[in-house]
Design a protein that fits this description.
By secondary structure, this protein is mainly α. It has one domain. The protein contains 11 helices and 2 strands; from the N terminus they run H-H-H-E-H-H-H-H-H-H-H-H-E. A two-stranded antiparallel sheet has the order 1-2. Helix 3 crosses helix 4. The longest helix has about 50 residues. The chain starts with a helix and ends in a 15-residue tail after the last strand. The C terminus is likely disordered.
Length: about 325
Amino acid sequence: MYIESKKLSKAVRGNINQNKFTYYSKAVLLQLMLTTAGSFLLRFIFKLALVSAGQENFTAHNFIDIINEPLSFILLIIFIMLLSVLTLFEFSVLTLMVYCSYKKVHFLWKENIKNAFLKWRNFNFKQLFFFVVYFVLMIPLSNLGMSSVFSEKFFIPKFITEELMKTLGGKVIYISFLLICGYINLRLIFSVPLTVINNRPFSYNMKRSFEFTKKGKFKLMLIWLKFGLIMLFVGGFFLGLNTFIFELLDESGKVAVYNSIFYTITRIIFFFFIVISKLVIISSIVKLIIDNDEPLSFKVAPYESFGIKNERNLLPA
């Protein structure tokens, strides 16, 4: 894919600047919904699977015992299916939020959440398998790139990484594994946004993603790196300013009220820049998909239907 770096950077910067607070407010609601109801359901089902197998926790040693228990195995399948639904829902909201901002149209929530569920229902075992593989590939680099709220909660067990890092050969294997995962993630990064936007199977969109990233992937990485460095600098400035102000207010650091406010503001700053960094990646991907004239499978409504003036030619509802 041919990428004009300056043109894409300008489009992404304009999109983020124009919609940053709208994006942030919707992302907060999405995060609250996923980390409360979604996480509760996932924990509940996983706990049931452990209890059904007579286990207190999940380890490499009791894995076989858990999947050999029929009820536990069924519950683990339900857990994986629910995880895929929630992950697809998260990316659907973020992708279509950005898509609609570029096209100056409104996303019809009720109709399209229904369509998102129907899209997931059309996942056969083959498509679900590919989606789970893609999700697993996010885990080693879960805090980088277009990761899910849920993939960020998974990680490679510490005892494995510690064991590998003890020897030179282990370090080479571990670093090589991360590089391979990073490369595959980069080549597949269009898969989910394409699946959200068009009406094609996930496996087909994985192939399309490989085609999209055959050329221009390193230009895309440089654009993300540039935005990342800018956000790192700006975020560091606000974190430093926050620390400086509260050090003036409470030099001892023992006033509970100040400590509570300080940590709340710090978490808000962190969350804001994590959301924006994720949206920078999604915004650039969606812009490239739009420029490729990918057909939209979701219903949208022009701004005029909501009494909002817009002079641009818009997609039909």
